[in-house]
Amino acid sequence: MIIQAFLRWLETAAACDRARAANALARAYLASRLQSDQQHAALLAMSHLLDDPAPQVRLGLARALATNPGAPRPIILALAEDQPEIACTVIAQSPVFQDADLVDLVGRGDGLTRGLIATRSGLSPVVSAALAEVGEVGEIVLLLENADAALSRGCLARIADRFGHDGEVRKLLLDRADLAPEVRQRLVSKVSEALAESSLVSNLLAGSRLERLTLEATETATLAIAGSASRFELPALVEHMRSSGTLTPALLINALCTGKADFLSEAMAALSGLDEPRVRALLASGRAPAVRAMFQAAGLHRDVAAVFVAGTLLWRQAGIMETSADICEALLSECRQLGARSPVVADLLEIVDRLQRSELRAAARSYAQQTALAA
């Protein structure tokens, strides 16, 4: 009876009064102060209010229901498709939405709707994946900034594929500890590309030097990523690099000289077709001809393979060598004559020489810092 009287009153009441009444009705429904028949009648009355021509009436309803888990789902879904101010009130806060509801809103909604969903607390991997698939840059930034959103590795990889060119998205991705190594390597390559395309950098450096520095920076970052990746993550990283053509002799000799044994063995397995345990055994204790055959099976030139064999044998004696710079120096000395006869070896030794200088400078900086701290 009360609800019927309420509906009759609505026909003549002013909009501001209807808005207050809508809010009070919704709060009474949530507080369960109504008998069961009145509760159902209240639900019908709220459904009727969804068609009220005054936005403030529907907004009053939304404000009362937005944060309550007991709000009727049909009312919440209807309010989510209302004009922006009303829709925002429930989309950003209501715990009533199911994942399927939010995915549907992501697909049908506009940028504002997707942005509000991206900021929701407790966002599930399913909804995050939907946003990663169709969201624009601004919405993706909001999603990545939402510390309470669950993002799978596949979701992060998709974001990297779509927006790895955007500096803000790239930074947010690279700051994440749960980013897969192969995705991190892909983004590092994009950083190098962005630097190479920068007019400021290109005006300061000649083309050939810029290309070399960009390549070296990418390789250094890639090896740092490889060094921090777990054994479980390495196969995916290596496969990504193999398919993208970045498992170059230059990168591999860098890995060998800096002692990235796990990465090197995984790379050799991918390139040679041998099982990884077999590759690891060959690197650790295989005879020189067998090790050379493995490197050649990986596609390395015969003379280049000889350099890799020499480096492998030197690492087996690494107990008497303290740093990667020692390995580089010994490898340069041992392969100098071969480099004089073979241009491909000469190019490879030039990389080893630059690596040795880089390692020495890094060691010098570390020594200076330790000395300063001890003073």
TrEMBL record:
InterPro entries: DUF2336, UCP035865. Pfam families: DUF2336. This is DUF2336 domain-containing protein.
